[in-house]
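If you are new to this repository, start here. Below is one unmodified record pulled from the training split, so you can see the exact layout before writing a loader.
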Amino acid sequence: MDNDRLSELILGKFKQTRAEVVGNSGVGDDCAVLDLGSDLVLLSCDPITAAGLRDLGRLSVYVNCNDAAAAGAEPIGLLVTLLIPPACTEEDVAQVADDLASAAAEIGVDILGGHTEVTEVVSRMVTVSTVVARRARADASAKPKPGDALVMTKWAGLEGSAILAHDYPHLFDNLAETVLWECESAGQYLSILPEARIAARCGASAMHDVTEGGVLAAAWELAWREGVGLRMDLDAIPVLGGTRAVCSKAGLNPLRLIGSGSLLCFCRDADALLAALRENGIAAAVIGVVTESGFIDSDGNEISPPGTDEIYSVL
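And here is the target side for that same chain:
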């Protein structure tokens, strides 16, 4: 579903009526914001539908907490709904719960509760999680301006690389063993909390985590949300060699592959942000510059808006 249809069929029907609601979630903005007095409360909800059992618990934690972190908030906990097909075993369920617990402990959040249900509606296990986070009041004047840099952390297609390696190993047939290893290892990079904290301290004017649709979708959503244009240097977007190799074989575009684990930031002083990230062992690169309008590459060619994520062509 493209963003115009999403707004027409669903998002445009929900009206803000309560004074406590500062902002609703929408296209390019994954968190609702509540004003309950001192700090702001942020909430965001996401399902995990494209991952197998091995990644489900960890992604449920990382993807939802990433949304909060990209909004400049500190995640506190998660409510998790777990939908289980009858064919799953108790061991399968226990594995997902163990992974939820270990990922939550790793980044310092609590699993607050949720709902567990066995249902024939799903053919494999699905989670739907809601993150609760808090954020201090931001400087309303901190908005991106033409000339600001677009900084990207880590590499494109990290989450998609891990999913392909874990759930579709046949795609790696006849590729070097290092390709599979590198894509499997991509799963260790899926949290963006460390870089989001650094970017906030370094004065990032806006942030957005990369998810479905990959780096290009996230960049388009961030620019659309902030009401600015972007000129992207597509050749500057970092891609792991393993990701590039398996995407080439499978006919996938790594820049449009689901990419949790990478953060996009608008900032005025890119050198300072890059230095701070690299001091903390986080790879980063400048991949674009803010403009008055448009979404183009370095040669002035228009980049198409978000479409269906590349991962769905192999599901």
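Two things worth knowing about this chain: The CA atoms of residues 104 and 110 lie 6 Å apart. DSSP finds nine helices and twelve strands in the chain.
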